[in-house]
Amino acid sequence: MNSSSSEPSSDFIRTIIAEDLKTGKNNGRVATRFPPEPNGYLHIGHAKSICLNFSIAAENRGGTCNLRFDDTNPGREDVEYVESIMKDVKWLGFDWQDRLFYASDYFEQLYQYAVQLIKKGRAYVCSLSPEQIRQYRGTLTEPGRDSPYRSRSVEENLDLFERMRAGEFADGTHVLRAKIDMSSPNLNMRDPVIYRIMKATHHRTGNKWCIYPMYDFTHCLSDSIERITHSICTLEFEDHRPLYDWFLDELEVKCHPQQIEFARLSLSYTVMSKRMLMELVEHGDVTGWDDPRMPTIAGMRRRGYTPGAIRAFCKRIGVAKRESMVDIALLEHCLREELNRCAPRVMGVLKPLRVIVDNYPEGQVEDLDAINNPEDPAMGARKIPFSRVLYIEQDDFMEEPPKKFYRLAPGREVRLRYAYFIKCVEVIKDEKTGKVVELHCTYDPETRGGDAPDGRKVKATLHWVSAACCLDAEVRLYDRLFLKENPCEEKDGPDFKSFLNPDSLKILKDCRVEPGLKDAKPGSIYQFERLGYFCVDEVDSSSESLVFNRTVTLRDAWANIKKRGS
Ligand code: ATP
Ligand code: MG
């Protein structure tokens, strides 16, 4: 599990492909595709598939990876989703070049393939109702029964299918089915429906069609038309593979891709089904597909995830045949690794407590040197202003400090990062509430930017900002979306939404950040020293009113898990 991003990956899929190349299969071509249905936004599970398909193409000379929209369900699909998917794939760092396809571009070809099946006696128009079709299908333990329409003649089938296309029949009155085997132990082979009537407007073909091909029929033929060599999909399609092969064999196509299945990504404390994510969006449990708590690419981007961190994560989890749940702490670990390298450090105070430095000259502002990223000297340095009135974090002061609390307390001295030692000499409290509202301190001018010349030590270094120069900001603190590791664990258990974390978002309106952030660009990410990584919100932030999203805290749960484990 220690693969760095420069090492090539290997897994059972890459092994199959390498073997195919060795034996000269597909004339040495490697062609993959990523085939999303545009019925929602992409999530981190899709990122696993995107990384896999595009990387395999890139690793092989002349390899290609198509982006293909599997748009055969006009009722649920929308251009909004098409556009978001293209944006997300690009943002992740992948390029389909001129290889953008839509299953809907093949509607005429697919129709002709269906006609071909009918002519071979391998498909028929069935006029059972959807409910009857379900009943006739049988179960895992009982064989199905033949539809009474199974023996329709080729001529009758051709005629009916043409009239289905012409719009003569209402939705649900007829379907076209493949004629395979109603007693097959594999339910997918029991005369599956391959076309249904749906008088819906398609986002690309408009009202041209009123019959639409089903996924299994469309998918294998789209792969074949595009001359895909390896059709990589998730494990739930394993039982569909016989059908994938059946269509391609019956239709005697020139290109017969190989379907290979891998385990889908499941991530703890979240859900990864578009249906569930859609429900959260539609019921207002989150603010939208790009809510920073969502496991969508759009949400993660807004939260402050970087494409590099997501790619590193996908590489680390690898691909396998066995389903497993990945700890979200690993994803956060990959993010911290990247942000530690590339995020500039700044100081921000989330819950400000006023500090007056009594012996510091009133009206004086002094610029102190601060390093932008100790991990990367090339990121340089900046100046931060110090003045008589400062803010520190409320949590960094305790009037009666317990053991092991080394931060500021009455009579105690601490260091202010990049500035001076200060010592607390007086605590001002609100008369009514008893709450600490202000501290008076003294500073030691000899300690500027470093240690005390007399060698005395302090046990804590605090972050701070100058009250005279700082900027106001809103900070949004995000936590896990769900309280339960696997919110969909029990099939008949409580609804997944009952496990939503009511505290997944806390908004702090009274924060202060250092003045250099005035022109921080939307989307840019900083480390607030001692607190975590924060990203300027792309949607709500402006230079007049800054809004930051907490991307992730500094504490690394994954590092601890690993330490405990080894
Ligand atoms: P969902 O179950 O969320 O609705 P889907 O499989 O229906 O997802 P598609 O748009 O059909 O969504 O998915 C496009 C591709 O992404 C498919 O090849 C699918 O196998 C893959 N994919 C979807 N979810 C995951 C996941 N969790 N892990 C890995 N690959 C995934
Ligand atoms: Mg799907």
Structure ligands: adenosine-5'-triphosphate, magnesium ion
- Approximately how much helix is present in the residues? 25-40%
Oligomer: single chain
Residue windows where pLDDT falls under 50 for at least 5 positions: none
For the terminal residues, how far apart are their CA atoms?
13 Å
- How is the main sheet built? 7 strands, mixed
Number of strands: 27
Number of separate helices: 13
Detailed description of the structure:
- The structure is a single chain.
- The chain is α/β, with parallel strands linked by helices and 566 residues long.
- It has three domains: 12-264, 3-Layer(aba) Sandwich (Rossmann fold), CATH 3.40.50; 274-344 and 473-565, Ribosomal Protein L25, Chain P (Beta Barrel), CATH 2.40.240.10; 348-463, Ribosomal Protein L25, Chain P (Beta Barrel), CATH 2.40.240.
- 26% of the residues lie in helices and 23% in strands.
- It contains 13 helices and 27 strands.
- The protein has a seven-stranded mixed sheet.
- The longest helix has 16 residues, at 44-59.
- Bound molecules: adenosine-5'-triphosphate (ATP) and magnesium ion.
- Adenosine-5'-triphosphate (ATP) binds next to helix 2 and strand 8.
